[in-house]
Every structure is written in C-alpha cells, then in structure tokens.
C-alpha cells in the first residue's frame, strides 16, 4: 500500500490526471475546481444535498463515532460528564475547552447570574401571544426580539462583547421558556432567583406557586441537569449548522440562536421528543404496538417511528442509554410510573429485533425516552422542544464562537445545480 496521502483522479472527458491531497480523511472540494474541460469551464463541483458526506468546518468541541455509539465533548465521554459534572460546567467546557476550576466556575456562574433578568418590556412581548401559542414559536420570536435590547451584540468580533452576549443568552433562555409556559397556562410570571442554581432556578420559574421559595427535590434537579448536559451539544446537526450559517454573515448571536431554534423546532430534529409522546399516546396500549410497527414498515402515510434513527448514529445513541436509566430513577423518586414507558419499551424491544430496523441500523435516539421524563415532571408536551433548546444554546454559542475565530471560514454560501429554463423572452 502506498503511503502517499493523495487522491489521483483521471477525468475521462479529457484524459487528464489530477492529484488532490488527502488531509484529515478529506479532499477539498475546492480542489475539484481545477478539473475542467477547457479554460471557459467553471470546473468540477461536489454535489451533496443534505451534507451527507461533507465536512463544513474543523471543530475541536464534540467528537462523535456514530458506528461505535461514542459521544465526547472536548475529549470527555458523555457518560462521565452526565455522572460527574453539572450543566454549567459542561457549558463552560464547550466554550473554553477545559472543565472549570472551582474559582472559574464561580466567576462563570456569577456572570450568568448577573444577566439573569429579562427586560420589563419582554413581559408584555410574551403576554402578547395567544395563550395557545406554541412555546417554541414564542422562544424563536422572543430570542430575536431580545437582541434589540442589546445593540452591542452586533460587535461579534469583540471577544469581551461576545462573552457578555453568551452569558446573557444562557441566563435568559430559561426565563423566556418558563414565562412562555406560564403565559400559556395563565399563571403569573415568577422572577428568576439565580441563588438557587441554574437548573433549580428554572424549575422555580416554572413551578412556584404562592410559597416564597420553591424547593425542588434535589434528585429531580439533578435529573433535569443531566438532561441539560445530554442535550448541550452534538456537533454539526441541523440547528448547529443553521447557527453557523447565520453566524457566518456576522449577524448578532440572538438572531443566530433564534434561527437555530427554528431549525430545532422541526419534528425530524428537536421536535421529535414532542412527536414521540404524541405517537405513544396514539398507540395507547402495549397490544397495539405490533400493528403500529407493521404500519410504519408499510410506510403508510410516510410515517416514521419517532425517536428512532439518526443521521450519524448507526448504533445505540449513547445519550438514549443514559436517559433510559435516568427515567427509571425519576419514576422511583416521584413514586409514579408513566404508563407510556411500557409502550416505549415494547416498541424498542420489537423494533430492535425487526429486520426492517436492524437492516437500516435504526436505534432509539436521544428523544425516544426524554419526553417520558419531562412528562413525569409535569412539563407539557409542547414545551419539550424548548427543554431541548435551553441547554443546546450553550453548544450553539460555543460553535458560533469557534466559527468566528476560524480563519478558514467565510460567509456560508453553497453552490447549486441549476435545473430551470436557461433563457427565454417575455412575449407581450
Ligand atoms: N422510522 C422508520 N424508518 C426510518 C426511520 C424511522 N424513524 N428513520 C429512518 N428510516 C428509514 C428510511 O425510511 C430509509 O429507508 P429506505 O432506505 O428504505 O428508504 C432509511 O431508514 C434511511 O433513512 P434516511 O431518511 O435516509 O436517514 P437520515 O439520516 O436522512 O435521517 C433522521 C435521520 C431524520 C433522524 C431519521 O432517522 C428520522 O426521521 N427519525 C425520526 C425522527 C427523529 O427521531 N428525529 C430525532 C433525531 S435526533 C435529534 O435530532 C436530536
């Protein structure tokens, strides 16, 4: 075997041979442009709708091996992060490359606490939505609106200003989420109390009634914190790619997060956790599972088994494994079972033995079991994608900052293959 790190291509149209260097297991598609039939020819392009086999960036944040079911942030396995760290430590890790020391964590937490209030006008903004408005739509709109309160956010090339916006977004996204929820159920907004800690503060804003201080069960706070850790980043997925695409035009990060959240909203991405619950409710009983699987396989209505399958994982999603055991712990603490869990387990059991799913390497993904935990915490189904967006904001922002620092990046602007009419005249 040759040790030469290059690819030799022969263009059979011209019989010319080209050599492209192989770097990090990739060839540059810009290198293909030299392959031309004549001087006027634009040159060869790569064609890859949906980026099935195209790396769009270099990143040192998250590593995934989809065949082995491995997920690591900055080298740390997700299982260890879930067990031994907090969400804020993971957010710091994504942003800075290292887990924080005690002093660094204190400073980071203080920066976030200092930004933990929403401008008074945001109350009116959230209250202007219909009570049945989808909270994800509210989050997208509110995040875009929030950027107008911070004109300095436009200075995306200033590191200090960037860090301030990052703290603002991480601090304020749970407030928007909780207030959107409380608006929908007609309850007064609860002001943030950062002294509770990031995740307990979110639960307090969601759940506090007339009591002066909401004391969430510490194990429930830990369970939700683990869910936040598991959702914090997942390299170049649909919403992160959107964050980077918007960020590449040097738009402010509030606008970019609003766009990323819009991408997350779809049922094939972060909206899947909501879709899983609707699916489990529709199935209704364990007996109905085999027929449901048959219908999916028959492709009736183009339906999919929601919470199954992944573009990258062709093995069990490691996050789903952690969530599955977390679900048992949460149900134990709350002293109640979610009957839908039995249906979910039966779906998984049958699907993992079924030739259709085995052949296509379709395993449960992060969204298959997460909704069952949210439901046990009495979080309404339409808030599930918002629960995903809260921690993913830290991943989006880490990736956004990495993009802005990357000298190889430019404004994202793919090419196309034009398939329309080339030229015609208006006959009038
Ligand atoms: N149920 C049934 N069949 C499926 C499913 C599923 N959930 N997912 C993929 N398939 C089938 C496809 O029909 C296709 O079959 P074919 O080869 O006979 O045509 C084959 O598996 C490959 O599917 P693709 O659509 O090419 O896979 P892709 O990588 O594009 O899609 C995706 C990945 C979008 C996640 C897909 O598996 C899916 O729709 N899953 C359900 C929605 C979901 O759970 N999304 C959450 C993903 S995790 C996240 O975003 C946080």
Your description of this structure?
The chain has 428 residues and is mainly alpha-helical. The chain folds into three domains: 6-47, no CATH class; 75-268 and 385-405, Citrate Synthase, domain 1; 272-376, Cytochrome P450-Terp, domain 2 (Cytochrome p450-Terp, domain 2, Orthogonal Bundle). Helix content is 50%, strand content 5%. The protein contains 17 helices and five strands. Strands 3-4-5 form a three-stranded antiparallel β-sheet. A two-stranded antiparallel sheet has the order 1-2. The longest helix is centred in the middle third of the chain and has 26 residues, at 159-184. 41% of the residues are buried. The mean pLDDT is 95. The protein binds acetyl coenzyme *A (ACO). The site of acetyl coenzyme *A has 18 residues, from loops.
Give the topology, please.
Elements: E1 6-11, E2 16-21, E3 62-65, E4 70-73, E5 76-77, H1 78-84, H2 87-96, H3 102-114, H4 120-127, H5 135-147, H6 159-184, H7 198-207, H8 218-230, H9 238-247, H10 253-265, H11 272-283, H12 289-297, H13 318-334, H14 339-353, H15 355-359, H16 367-376, H17 384-405
Antiparallel strand pairs: 1-2, 3-4, 4-5
Helix pairs in contact: 1-8, 2-8, 2-17, 3-6, 5-6, 5-10, 6-7, 6-17, 8-13, 9-10, 9-17, 10-17, 11-16, 13-16
Got a strand count?
Answer: 5
Secondary-structure-based class equals mainly alpha
CATH class of the largest domain: Mainly Alpha
Hetero groups in this structure are: acetyl coenzyme *A
Shape designation: globular
Rg calc: 24 Å
Unreliable residue stretches: none
* Helix and strand pattern: EEEEEHHHHHHHHHHHHHHHHH
Main-sheet strand order equals: 3-4-5
As for the number of domains, it is 3
Largest sheet data: 3 strands, antiparallel
Question: What's the overall average pLDDT, rounded?
Answer: 95
Tell me the name of the CATH homologous superfamily of the largest domain. Citrate Synthase, domain 1
């Amino acid at each position: 075997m040759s040790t030469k790190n290059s690819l030799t291509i022969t263009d059979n149209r011209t019989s010319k041979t080209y050599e492209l260097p192989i770097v990090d297991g990739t060839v540059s598609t810009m290198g293909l442009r030299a392959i031309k039939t004549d001087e006027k020819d634009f040159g060869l392009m790569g064609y890859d709708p949906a980026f099935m086999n195209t790396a769009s960036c270099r990143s040192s944040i998250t590593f995934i091996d989809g065949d082995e079911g491995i997920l690591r942030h900055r080298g740390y396995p997700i299982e260890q992060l879930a067990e031994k760290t907090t969400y804020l430590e993971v957010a710091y890790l994504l942003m800075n490359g290292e887990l924080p020391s005690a002093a660094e964590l204190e400073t980071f937490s203080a920066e976030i606490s200092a930004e933990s209030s929403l401008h008074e006008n945001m109350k009116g903004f959230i209250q202007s939505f219909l009570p049945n408005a989808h909270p994800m739509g509210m989050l997208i709109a509110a995040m875009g609106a929030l950027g107008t309160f911070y004109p300095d956010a436009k200075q995306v090339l200033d590191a200090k200003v960037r860090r301030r916006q990052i703290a603002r977004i991480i601090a304020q996204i749970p407030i928007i989420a909780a207030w959107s929820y409380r608006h929908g159920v007609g309850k007064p907004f609860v002001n943030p109390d950062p002294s509770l800690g990031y995740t307990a503060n979110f639960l307090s804003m969601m759940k506090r009634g007339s009591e002066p201080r909401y004391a969430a069960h510490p194990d429930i706070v830990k369970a939700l914190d683990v869910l936040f850790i598991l959702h914090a980043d997942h390299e170049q997925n649909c919403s992160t790619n959107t964050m980077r695409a918007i960020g590449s035009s040097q738009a402010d990060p509030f606008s970019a997060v609003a766009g990323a959240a819009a991408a997350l909203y779809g049922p094939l991405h972060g909206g899947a956790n909501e879709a899983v619950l609707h699916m489990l409710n529709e199935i209704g009983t364990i007996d109905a599972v085999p027929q449901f699987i048959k219908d999916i396989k028959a492709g009736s209505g183009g339906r999919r088994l929601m919470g199954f399958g992944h573009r990258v994982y062709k093995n069990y999603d490691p996050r789903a494994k952690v969530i599955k055991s977390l679900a048992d712990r949460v149900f134990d603490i709350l002293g109640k079972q979610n009957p839908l869990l039995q249906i979910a387990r039966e779906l998984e059991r049958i699907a993992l033995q079924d030739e259709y799913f085995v052949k296509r390497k379709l395993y449960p993904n992060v969204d298959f079991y997460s909704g069952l935990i949210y439901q046990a915490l009495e979080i309404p189904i339409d808030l599930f994608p918002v629960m995903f967006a809260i921690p993913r904001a830290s991943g989006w922002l880490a990736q956004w900052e990495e993009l802005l620092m990357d000298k190889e990046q430019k404004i994202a602007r793919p090419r196309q293959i034009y398939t329309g009419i080339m030229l015609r005249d208006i006959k009038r």
